[in-house]
Amino acid sequence: MPNVESESVYFLNAGAAESEHERLNRQHRLFDDMMQNDLLPPHISSALSNSPTPPKIVEIATGTAIWLTEIAKTLPADAELVGLDYDTSKFPASLPSNITLRQANMYEPFPSDLHGKFDIVNVRLIIFALKEGQGTDLVRNLMTLLKPGGYIVWAETGPLVGSVEPPSLAWHQFQEVNWKFAKKVGRDLNLPIGMLYYIKEAGCVECDDKAYPGNSQLYTHNAKDWIARINFHVKAFAEQSLRGIISLGGVEGMTTQEEMDELVAAFKRDFVDRKVNYVFIRAWGRKPEA
Ligand SMILES: C[S@@+](CC[C@H](N)C(=O)[O-])C[C@H]1O[C@@H](n2cnc3c(N)ncnc32)[C@H](O)[C@@H]1O
Predict the structure, then answer these.
(1) Where in the chain are the domains?
(2) How far, in Å, from the CA of 126 to the mean position of ligand 1?
């Protein structure tokens, strides 16, 4: 069995699991607001509610299972929900009885009892775990979990498709560190745009995607609260990313705790009430019936 941890380029699991757990749950609420509180593309939700059998959903790289916990509230009690992640340290202590969590590496064949079982495979925010050349094979692996006609839904954003206003030197420095690290470890830089291509290439049909402007909340009555939340989020995300990048050997200019502390301090100064402009993309496709 390969040593998954040592092969992985994923960097957001460094440090205390509890604070990463809280960060992911806060992040879910931001992304959910930004995506108009549609936990699934509306036409896929409708297909699920019109299905004659109880819904079966699996989430890959489930983290704290926050998405599963939220979607469970919208589904009948006989829905069956499964969450998989290679790192179990962020799994919550208690969950609704129809959610089961298990350890699984998404780059290896999934346990055979899960094959061909699900109406939906959901995956969100694995951008930092994907190496160049792995996208299409990953989707093929996810498709093994689907019933014929089932849907894959994949959502991503990333720092390289974001900008801040007014411009921030700390943000630019962070983007450079992140980009250098991606090049060093061979991370896939085609996400979030490339998901649709990978889903099509893997053989799905009825594929499409939708982009959600990450700053749409600025044009609602929530704008002030949104700015405070997104500034808090950016600081926490940058700190957790830098901690992880250093733990995996770092890149030129970002290898020591001192270098990290300096950039984190610059983030604290810069991110109080900045506008953060970015985009969140959700792509989907359907496993052919035949
Ligand atoms: C940014 S978190 C997102 C968690 C969750 N999907 C969400 O949106 O809240 C990414 C998750 O991917 C998991 N992960 C990374 N590499 C993985 C792999 N090879 N197999 C399974 N899970 C993986 C991490 O442990 C982490 O929980």
Answers:
(1) 4-286
(2) 6
Q: What are the Cα distances from residue 213, in Å, to 161, 219, 251, 280?
A: 11, 11, 31, 6
Q: What span, in angstroms and rounded, lies between the C-alpha atoms of 285 and 150?
A: 9
CA of 196 to the centre of ligand 1 (A): 19
AA letter at 85: D
CA 62, chain centre distance (Å): 8
119 HSE (CA, 13 A, CB side): 18
pLDDT at 191 over 80: yes
Tell me if the pTM is above 0.85: yes
Contact 62, 70 (CB under 8 A): no
Query: Is 4-286 a CATH 3.40.50.11690 domain?
Result: no
Binding site membership of 63 for ligand 1 (Cβ less than 6 Å): yes
Q: Is the CB of 86 under 6 A from ligand 1?
A: yes
* pLDDT tens-place string over residues 160-186: 888 999 999 999 999 999 999 999 999
